[in-house]
């Protein structure tokens, strides 16, 4: 169900993007740009313990609305403030287990004694992006260069971890060891439809209560992918 829904959303936004040149015939001296966005990223954990390794593709999906507020007469410079949603998964070899007291324990999976087919944790995030936007757009140009840089504040309203292997199937939701508030720097650079997007997390995914071998899990997220803008 999830994959068809994502495909439908991508198709909807793609249709809007490619129809924009055809339908936007009226010259608008007060035009605004790129107020809807949708994108996908490859998620990388940085600052992780030496034995913690990622495998397969850890993906992110992002969409939202940014109010474009031009700050010069040409309207090619603007401030953007928005609201969005993202879901991010991290496939790796760290086992998350809950004990009888309700506390979560973290350990690196020993591949010689424990086998598994799935092991990941994921987050659902409400985001507040703030951007400074520069572009080469005009009132009649719909293909242009852009550089958008800024800050993104996120609230993790749900998280989940899942292990499936020789220890059985372990599923946990709403682990309080996750940092509910996460934030980082963003950069989007590209031309027309194709834009490279980078997010660099400034604070850890987990709080200090998450300990691996007696040390806090101070892992940050770096997300690299493509971002598409509409209108």
Proportion in helices: under 10%
- Rg is 20 Å
Q: Report the average pLDDT across residues.
A: 89
Instruction: Strand order, main sheet: write it out.
Output: 1-2-3-6-7-9-10-13
Shape: elongated
Written as H for each helix and E for each strand, in order along the chain, the element string is HEEEEEEEEEEEEE
Name the structural class: mainly beta
Q: What is the tally of beta strands? A: 13
Largest sheet: 8 strands, antiparallel, barrel
Could you walk me through the main structural features you see in this protein, from its secondary elements to its overall organization?
The chain is mainly β and 231 residues long. It has 1 helix and 13 strands. The chain has one helix at 2-23, and strands at 36-46, 59-70, 77-91, 94-98, 104-108, 116-135, 145-165, 168-173, 181-191, 194-201, 211-212, 215-216, 220-230. The strands form 3 sheets. Strands 1-2-3-6-7-9-10-13 form an 8-stranded antiparallel β-barrel. A hairpin with a 6-residue loop joins strand 2 (59-70) and strand 3. It is elongated, with a radius of gyration of 20 Å. The two termini are 28 Å apart. The relative contact order is 0.21.
């Amino acid at each position: 169900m999830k994959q068809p829904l994502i495909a439908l959303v991508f198709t909807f936004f793609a249709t809007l993007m490619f129809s924009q040149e055809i339908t936007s015939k009226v010259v608008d001296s007060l035009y605004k740009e790129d107020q809807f966005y949708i994108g996908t990223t490859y998620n990388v954990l940085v600052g992780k313990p030496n034995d913690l390794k990622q495998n397969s593709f850890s993906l992110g999906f992002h969409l939202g609305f940014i109010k474009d507020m031009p700050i010069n007469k040409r309207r090619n410079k603007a401030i953007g403030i928005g609201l969005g949603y993202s879901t991010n998964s991290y496939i790796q070899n760290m086992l998350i287990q809950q004990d009888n007291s309700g506390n979560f324990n973290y350990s690196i999976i020993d591949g010689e004694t424990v086998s598994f087919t799935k092991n990941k944790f994921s987050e659902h995030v409400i985001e507040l992006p703030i951007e400074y936007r520069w572009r080469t757009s005009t009132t009649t140009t719909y293909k242009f260069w852009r550089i958008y840089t800024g800050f993104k504040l996120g609230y993790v309203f749900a998280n989940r971890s899942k292990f499936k292997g020789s220890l059985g199937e372990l599923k946990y939701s709403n682990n309080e060891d996750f940092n509910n508030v996460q934030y980082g720097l963003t950069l989007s650079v590209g031309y027309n439809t194709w834009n490279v997007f980078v997010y660099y997390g400034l604070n850890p995914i987990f709080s200090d209560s998450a300990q691996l071998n007696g040390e806090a899990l101070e892992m940050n997220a770096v997300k690299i992918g493509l971002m598409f803008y509409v209108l």
